[in-house]
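Re: heme C structure - here you go.
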Amino acid sequence: MKHFRPLLAVLPLPALLLLAATRSVQPAAQTPKQPAPVSYTRQILPLFEKQCNVCHSGSAPASGYAMTTREALLKGGRHGVAIVPGKSNEGTFVKYLTGELKPKMPPGGALDLDTINLIRRWINEGAKFDSPTGGRPGAGGGKIVPAAPAAVNGAAQQPAPVTALAYSPDGKRLAAGGYRVVRLLDAQTGQVVRKLSGPVDQVQAVAWSSDGKRLAVAGGAAGLEGEVLVYDTLTWLPLRKLAEHYEVVYALAWKPNTHELATGSFDKTARVWDADTGKVVKVLKTTPDAVMGVAYSPDGKMLATASLDRSAKLIDTTTWKRLAALTAHQDGLTRVAFNHDGTLLATAGTDKTVRLWKVEIGKMENPLRTHNAGDTITACAFSNGGGDNSLFVYGSADTVVRAFNGDATQHRRDLRDGKDWVYSVALSPDSRTIAAGTHDGKVLFWNAADEMKLVRAVSLLPGGGAKVEIATSKEAGK
Ligand code: HEC
């Protein structure tokens, strides 16, 4: 089970939405006088949903094996081709069910022989999806694909998690990443002022260039492709699609005062791009596992990467040499961030800890401080400047956003609406507002200057609108 990723527990969504899409479809017409062909929708999919998809779906499926589109289901993960249509004896799939390949699937249980035979028959009949879309809607093929309206892909009923948040440098807009869409919220009122087509599946990261002229949006389809869209914020037209990653892109960072963009992907690489030309400046293969976080030092001289291999690396952006490897975490890393003057680095992980490091090349064996949460840390952020108002915040799947002073020495407050996993956090450039995105599709705003009261909860509706609720004093600032 060494590939099992606790992070799965917090990133399981796009696939579920896709399943909702395939389920509403009519079963295939049946040929008379022959045993009815096995119906994927009615007989196979419910089984997968119940027994497999808790691990084999979402943005970081076990063993890199997503079972949620036909393409991915056939293709397999780390162990090669899973299903060869028409040939149930080939591929790894049935072998994992029978135990011929170990560990037997599902781990800790087993399917009975009748069920395995039903799956074999379905494979021998061609492993067909009896759905007109055959899985993932709207594959890209290099073109920029407009996001399918939620009503079309069947996801209309479920709000998508808010997996990414970023304030524009002027503080007027908050970009919120959802399922195939980025909403721009008015930072004051929480109203949606614009919707942008996101990449395929769940948006995993959003980032504004420091001049505010570009917005980058990252995502991709597990096991298939990574995608980054770069928008011109004057016209709101997509300028570039950066599509060289072959797995989901989880992380974005703009090199300060440039249009150079760093990306981190489940394909185990970080890349640096000239976002205006779309050219790759550098491919970094510094980790043996997925790169979930990237961050530039404020002077742009260093790039930090955070990987599921449990380490963070500091890389010189001129020579591309590794300056430091930080290895204190006990499990995979999810995020990395520099503070405003580049003297501190925060690393966050699935080991439920945030570690703060003094940035001192050659002397970074141990972190300065370690903070804990009750679950995977999904996001962390420092405020823009130092001083009394400076802040450090991190969000966790335990539903809490924890706020500290800027060097994380003093705990300020635990912020919660307590209802669902926190996926993303952002601090407004003036450090007056803390925003958090949750699994149940909300953006929560706390007033950081005041007593850290919850001032606004915005539900991002699947149709594209938003329901803004002003917090009452009762629920504020617990
Ligand atoms: C609790 C999590 C979990 C569940 C549930 C689960 N799997 Fe897995 N699966 C894994 C892990 C972890 C691996 C990687 C095993 C290894 O090689 O170390 C894996 C690997 C596989 C592979 C090999 C993929 C590849 O190429 O790497 C197949 C096929 C597979 N599982 C099928 C299934 C099926 C079918 C089900 C449901 C009947 C299922 N799994 C349920 C965790 C799970």
